[in-house]
Design brief:
alpha/beta, TIM Barrel, 4-stranded antiparallel β-sheet, globular
Length: 338
């Protein structure tokens, strides 16, 4: 089986020969493991099953000064501490008003060129186009997290209008992506803390659910798969996500949910991608503990499909290289039918 065939089979809740997997790293973790292996190109040899043809915002960042970049929406990010994402430094929408403001335009020519070239180069892996900061996250980068949450109560009309404009931008992006030979649209939009939904279920259903329903329906109408990356304890809206057509949920954090019970409960309705703890197991375990727990997750969660093995987020810099290597060793050395 090709990696692409294996992931599709898993998403369709069929037993695979081995459990499909994908491992990603923060910049510092990648550098640490490259030094451990003595190979700066180690990532291409892991056997990752997914090819990310495009990650939202790729190539449109503007360098302002060392450690500071600006995205296509005008948001300035301070990456002097967090080198991978950063912290928002400015406020594009200081008032609860969209007067004089419009989202940027999708660079269709550029996006089409990237997707044509990269899709052709990845015939065997599961081809994903990723749209990060796809709704709630994009809104709070423009307005500020605390202010946006207050707006949901004090200025709901403004929030609806803001979310609608972001959704229209996204639909334009989605329509371009769907013209190409891809398998999946991945939406990034963190809704949760480790205690629950940041805005609570009522406001999530008012502001977020109707928009993701439109976006997911557009993808499903083209017979492509839908994936969401949403950190935190958000399982109280899993029934809603099934209802609006989600196929794959990521990152599947064992710190906020029982991954075994959750997979069992939603088997046949929702597949899961993640599950290997980046908060406990990988940073704090021994290499032998990492091997044992990774094998256990593969054996139990991989049974019957519905699971893609992965760390529960990009591996952070505090994970020892020996533990990263131990996990990768287990993933790479699965025996078909074992």
């Amino acid at each position: 089986m090709t990696p692409r065939e294996r992931i599709i089979q898993a998403i369709q809740f069929q037993q695979t020969d081995i459990v499909p997997y994908h491992v990603t790293f923060t910049k510092d973790a990648r550098r640490k493991l490259a030094e451990y292996y003595g190979d700066p190109d180690f990532e291409s040899k892991i056997g990752n099953h997914i090819a990310y043809l495009y990650r939202g915002g790729e190539g449109v960042w503007t360098d302002l000064q060392p450690g500071y970049v600006q995205d296509a929406w005008g948001v300035v990010w301070n990456r002097t501490v967090d080198k991978d994402i950063g912290c928002v430094e400015n406020r594009i929408l200081p008032e609860a008003s969209l007067k004089g403001w419009q989202p940027p335009s999708v660079d269709a020519e550029r996006l089409n060129g990237i997707l044509r070239e990269r899709a052709a180069a990845e015939p065997d892996r599961f081809r994903v186009v990723s749209l990060g900061f796809s709704l709630f996250e994009r809104a709070w980068t423009l307005r500020g997290m605390e202010q946006l949450l207050m707006d949901m109560i004090e200025s709901p009309g403004f929030v609806h209008e803001l979310f609608d404009r972001i959704t229209q931008y996204n639909l334009g992006f989605i329509d371009i992506a769907l013209r190409h030979d891809i398998d999946c649209l991945r939406f990034g939009d963190d809704w949760g803390s480790q205690a629950g939904l940041i805005m609570g279920p009522r406001l999530w259903r008012e502001f977020i659910k109707p928009r993701i329903a439109r976006m997911y329906a557009r993808v499903r109408s083209a017979r492509k798969y839908v994936m969401i990356h949403s950190c935190g304890k958000v399982q109280e809206v899993f029934p809603d996500l099934v209802e609006v057509g989600l196929n794959v949920f990521n990152p599947f954090q064992p710190e906020v949910m029982d991954v075994f019970e959750t997979k069992k409960r939603y088997y046949g309705k929702l597949s899961f991608f993640g599950g290997i703890s980046v908060q406990r197991l990988l940073p704090l375990g021994t290499p032998d503990e990492v091997r044992r727990e990774t094998r256990r997750l593969l054996q139990i969660l991989g049974e019957g499909g519905g699971y893609i093995a992965s760390p529960s987020h990009d591996i952070p810099s505090d994970v020892p290289a020996e533990n990263m290597a131990a996990m990768i060793e287990v993933l790479q050395n699965q025996k078909p039918g074992a």
